[in-house]
Fold this protein.
Amino acid sequence: MNRNVSQQPQQLLDWMGGLSDATRLRLLVLAEGQELSVAELCEVLQMPQSTVSRHLKVLGDQGWVHYRRQGTARLYRLLEEELESSQRELWKLARGQAKLWPELAQDRLRLEEHLARRGDDPRTFFAGAAARWDDLRSECYGETFAIAALASLLPRDWTVVDLGCGTGHLATLMARQVKRVIGVDQSEEMLAAARRRSTGFSNLEWRQGDLRRLPLDDAVSDAALMLLALTYLADPAAALAEARRVVRPGGKVVLVDLLSHDREDFRLAMGQRSTGFEVDEIKALLAGAGLHELVAFPLTPEVRAKGPALLLASGTV
């Protein structure tokens, strides 16, 4: 009896140590409520197998997770009722404190997308082309055809401005479908690449300028697009106000940007000024620019995407 009592403090410290690592907490949140293989956890966490396996061993040794074999794979899970009572209380505390982490929100989005592809029965993930159809289609045909199909839905008589157009990939696709496209970017190097890409298009023009002070007249377009631009700006509200100014009444401002995250290393590597936006935050910015009929929602992360999740938002002028 005395020996067991003396071991209790050490067991508690071991459990606390298991929860003291952010990666292990993320793994436990993912493993609660469903079985996931190491490969699946690597995909969701965007981490190498060696890292995930090392942390799973710690969690397994401490009784946080259990696994069963399915073929050559191990499927891991956390079941709250399998935890010891003190361990369960620690888990509830840790889960509650961590639930608002931006990184966990990103993990949940990737997990939801993965589970949707996998299907209700885990065995379907490993069998048949249906479970991998999205991946197979991308591998065989790429993604451009889907963007081109969506662009064809735009009215033929529209003028569209692409704000922060970069090398002109999207602007060039739209120019095949609409009357006129104007691309604006601050980088002359980006615009030079865009001009090379758009040789032969008479309805495409490129302008160098600051998105906070656009070199465009009022109400010159039917729609304005801002793709992955706001996180590079010190004053996103000013850029959205300018986007509204150059769109006619009844037209649309549409943007795609980063969902809020805590990957400071990514922000620095990409030269961005902010770590993205919450959905409510971006809607408030659109409303502040004078737009209405607001829509904003997270986008389903793509399997091979290594960056943070994105959101799509729009408003009417």
The beta strands are 36-37, 66-70, 73-77, 159-163, 180-185, 204-208, 221-227, 247-258, 292-298, 310-316. The two ends are 74 Å apart (CA to CA).
